[in-house]
Amino acid sequence: MPQIQSAKKRMRQARVHAAQNRTQRSRLRSALKKVRTATGSELETAFAEAEQLLDRAGRKHLIHPNAAARQKSRLAKFKAKTQAG
Protein backbone atom coordinates (compact mmCIF):
# COMPACT_ATOMS: atom_id res chain seq x y z
CA MET A 1 0.00 0.00 0.00
CA PRO A 2 1.24 3.47 -0.81
CA GLN A 3 2.22 5.72 2.07
CA ILE A 4 2.31 9.04 0.26
CA GLN A 5 -0.98 10.90 -0.06
CA SER A 6 -0.62 11.57 -3.80
CA ALA A 7 0.13 7.88 -4.43
CA LYS A 8 -3.00 6.90 -2.49
CA LYS A 9 -5.04 9.30 -4.62
CA ARG A 10 -3.48 7.94 -7.80
CA MET A 11 -4.42 4.43 -6.72
CA ARG A 12 -8.04 5.49 -6.14
CA GLN A 13 -8.14 7.21 -9.53
CA ALA A 14 -6.63 4.20 -11.28
CA ARG A 15 -9.31 1.95 -9.80
CA VAL A 16 -12.10 4.27 -10.98
CA HIS A 17 -10.59 4.71 -14.45
CA ALA A 18 -10.08 0.97 -14.87
CA ALA A 19 -13.75 0.35 -14.05
CA GLN A 20 -14.87 3.02 -16.52
CA ASN A 21 -12.61 1.64 -19.25
CA ARG A 22 -13.91 -1.89 -18.64
CA THR A 23 -17.50 -0.69 -18.98
CA GLN A 24 -16.84 1.27 -22.17
CA ARG A 25 -14.85 -1.58 -23.74
CA SER A 26 -17.65 -4.01 -22.91
CA ARG A 27 -20.28 -1.72 -24.48
CA LEU A 28 -18.10 -1.42 -27.58
CA ARG A 29 -17.62 -5.17 -27.96
CA SER A 30 -21.34 -5.81 -27.47
CA ALA A 31 -22.19 -3.22 -30.12
CA LEU A 32 -19.77 -4.78 -32.59
CA LYS A 33 -21.23 -8.22 -31.97
CA LYS A 34 -24.75 -6.83 -32.42
CA VAL A 35 -23.82 -5.47 -35.85
CA ARG A 36 -22.45 -8.83 -36.98
CA THR A 37 -25.62 -10.67 -35.93
CA ALA A 38 -28.19 -8.05 -37.02
CA THR A 39 -30.26 -8.22 -40.18
CA GLY A 40 -32.49 -5.80 -42.06
CA SER A 41 -33.38 -2.52 -40.39
CA GLU A 42 -31.71 -3.65 -37.15
CA LEU A 43 -28.41 -3.55 -39.01
CA GLU A 44 -28.70 0.19 -39.70
CA THR A 45 -29.29 1.15 -36.08
CA ALA A 46 -26.71 -1.31 -34.75
CA PHE A 47 -24.14 -0.01 -37.24
CA ALA A 48 -24.83 3.62 -36.31
CA GLU A 49 -24.42 2.87 -32.60
CA ALA A 50 -21.23 0.86 -33.16
CA GLU A 51 -19.79 3.59 -35.36
CA GLN A 52 -20.49 6.20 -32.69
CA LEU A 53 -18.90 4.07 -29.95
CA LEU A 54 -15.84 3.37 -32.12
CA ASP A 55 -15.38 7.08 -32.81
CA ARG A 56 -15.57 7.87 -29.12
CA ALA A 57 -13.25 5.00 -28.14
CA GLY A 58 -10.66 6.18 -30.65
CA ARG A 59 -10.96 9.80 -29.57
CA LYS A 60 -10.60 8.88 -25.88
CA HIS A 61 -7.74 6.42 -26.63
CA LEU A 62 -9.70 3.52 -25.18
CA ILE A 63 -8.48 1.79 -28.31
CA HIS A 64 -5.96 3.14 -30.78
CA PRO A 65 -7.53 5.65 -33.19
CA ASN A 66 -6.27 3.68 -36.19
CA ALA A 67 -7.80 0.49 -34.76
CA ALA A 68 -11.13 2.31 -34.45
CA ALA A 69 -10.90 3.47 -38.07
CA ARG A 70 -9.98 -0.03 -39.23
CA GLN A 71 -12.92 -1.60 -37.39
CA LYS A 72 -15.30 1.03 -38.77
CA SER A 73 -14.06 0.31 -42.27
CA ARG A 74 -14.51 -3.42 -41.84
CA LEU A 75 -18.01 -2.98 -40.41
CA ALA A 76 -19.00 -0.71 -43.33
CA LYS A 77 -17.70 -3.30 -45.76
CA PHE A 78 -19.61 -6.03 -43.91
CA LYS A 79 -22.80 -3.92 -43.91
CA ALA A 80 -22.55 -3.24 -47.66
CA LYS A 81 -21.95 -6.91 -48.40
CA THR A 82 -24.87 -7.99 -46.20
CA GLN A 83 -27.31 -5.50 -47.72
CA ALA A 84 -26.27 -6.30 -51.29
CA GLY A 85 -26.42 -10.07 -50.93
Structure description:
This protein is an all-alpha fold and 85 residues long. It has a single domain, classed as Methane Monooxygenase Hydroxylase, Chain G, domain 1, CATH 1.20.58. It has helices at 5-37, 41-59, 65-84. The model has no long low-confidence stretch (mean pLDDT 96).
Which secondary structure elements does this structure contain, and how are they paired or packed?
Layout: H1 5-37, H2 41-59, H3 65-84
Helix pairs in contact: 1-2, 2-3
What are the key terms here?
about 80 residues, Methane Monooxygenase Hydroxylase, Chain G, domain 1
Describe the structure concisely for a colleague.
This protein has 85 residues and is an all-alpha fold.
Strand proportion: under 5%
Q: Classify the fold: give the CATH topology.
A: Methane Monooxygenase Hydroxylase, Chain G, domain 1
Quick one: how many beta strands?
0
Tally of discrete structural domains: 1
From the spread of the alpha carbons, the general shape counts as: elongated
CATH architectural category: Up-down Bundle
- How many helices does DSSP assign? 3
Which stretches are poorly predicted, pLDDT < 50 over at least 5 residues? none
User: What's the CATH superfamily, by name?
Assistant: Ribosomal protein S20
- Class derived from helix and strand content: mainly alpha
- Return the average pLDDT rounded to an integer: 96
CATH class: Mainly Alpha
